[in-house]
Amino acid sequence: MDIFRTQTTLERIGLRPGQKVLEVGSGGGRLLIPAAKRVLPGGEVVGLNLLPNSTKQLQERAAQARVTNLKAITGDAVLPHFPADTFDLVYICTALGEISDPQAAIKQCYAVLKAGGTLSITEMIPDPHYQAQDKVCALAETTGFEFVRVEGSWLFYTMNFRKPVINQS
């Protein structure tokens, strides 16, 4: 079941070769390590974890899997860690409810995404920190994201948003 959910989530996120991707709350890399392979050739992934032990575990698992286009960072998702307009895609899978200030984290995602970039949020039952679709949508839209689509049911869904492209002509 876990492999099915991993593959389904990765397909819903919409990873493509050449993308620069950030996973907020990547843990030991259940999604990030296969994501790193999906963005090849030319792509790279970064995992942001609050706990140093998770970052270390991610680095060890990436080395075991011989994944070389993955970087692991320790830091709080509500604080800036990357320059603006760095990533093509940012995703959060079953970690949004564990973040101390989800709105601040979504604002950081907005800041580091390139114009036209994607924010993807996945939630599933029985996660004890499950976030309902209406709450996720409100957090993203309040920050300025445009809703793109939701896939799955309320039990296991992925919701994608887009950072608008602003014409400065």
Name some characteristics of this structure.
single chain; 169 residues; alpha/beta; 7-stranded mixed beta sheet; 5 helices; 7 strands; 30% strand
Task: Please characterize this protein's 3D structure.
With 169 residues, the protein is of the alpha/beta class. The chain has one domain (2-162): Vaccinia Virus protein VP39 (Rossmann fold, 3-Layer(aba) Sandwich). The protein has five helices and seven strands; from the N terminus they run αβαβαββαβαββ. A seven-stranded mixed β-sheet has the order 3-2-1-4-5-7-6, sandwiched between helices. A hairpin with a 2-residue loop joins β6 (146-153) and β7. The longest helix has 13 residues, at 52-64. It is globular, with a radius of gyration of 15 Å. The mean pLDDT is 95.
Please give the structural blueprint.
Elements: H1 2-13, E1 20-24, H2 32-38, E2 44-49, H3 52-64, E3 70-74, E4 87-93, H4 102-112, E5 113-124, H5 133-143, E6 146-153, E7 156-162
Parallel strand pairs: 1-2, 1-4, 2-3, 4-5
Antiparallel strand pairs: 5-7, 6-7
